[in-house]
Design brief:
The protein has helices spanning 2-20, 36-52; strands spanning 28-30, 57-71, 75-89, 106-116, 119-127, 130-137. The longest helix has 19 residues, at 2-20. The chain contains two helices and six strands, in the order H-E-H-E-E-E-E-E. It is of the alpha+beta class and 139 residues long. It has a six-stranded antiparallel sheet with strand order 1-2-3-4-5-6, with helices on one face. The protein has a single domain (30-137), classed as Nuclear Transport Factor 2, Chain: A (Roll). Residues 23-118 form the Cystatin domain. It holds the Pfam family Cystatin.
Length: 139
């Protein structure tokens, strides 16, 4: 009988901890844009997006629709944002660029940024029909 309690008590403790947890480890959850790491990840993802598009103009985030994060070996960030083409050309020196008001140059974009160990993986989804997957190694 004593042996049974040595097994039952730890199992009950684990069950209580799992049941009281708000999120599942490794699960995707909503993130807060007030967090500096989240803002830095979005800034990096947008910069990489602009580097890898063939557009002559810089694209800017006009609205953050949804932000999610996932804890893995590092951190995954998934941003759903509305972006618009600015009036500034790539490689220009302007800091503040106005965006086009034409709805044809606005798109909803999903940017995903992952930082895992020494490898950085960036996936940019331009639309339902275009998917860019890029891999960069940071040393």
């Amino acid at each position: 009988m004593l042996m049974d309690w040595k097994i039952v008590v730890p199992l009950l403790a684990v069950a209580f901890i799992v049941a009281s947890a708000d999120v599942i480890a490794g699960g995707v959850m909503d993130a807060n844009m007030k967090d500096q790491a989240t803002r830095d990840a979005l800034q990096f993802a947008v910069a990489e997006y602009n580097k890898r598009t063939n557009d002559l103009y810089v694209w800017q985030v006009t609205k953050v629709v949804k932000v999610q994060e996932q804890v893995v070996a590092g951190m995954n960030y998934i941003f759903t944002v509305k972006m618009a083409r600015s009036l500034c050309r790539k490689g220009g020196v302007e800091k503040d660029c106005a965006v086009h008001q034409d709805p044809a140059v606005v798109r909803t974009t999903r940017l995903a940024w992952s930082q895992i160990c020494l490898c950085a993986i960036l996936a940019l989804q331009l639309s339902a029909s275009y998917m860019y997957s890029l891999r960069m190694v940071n040393f």
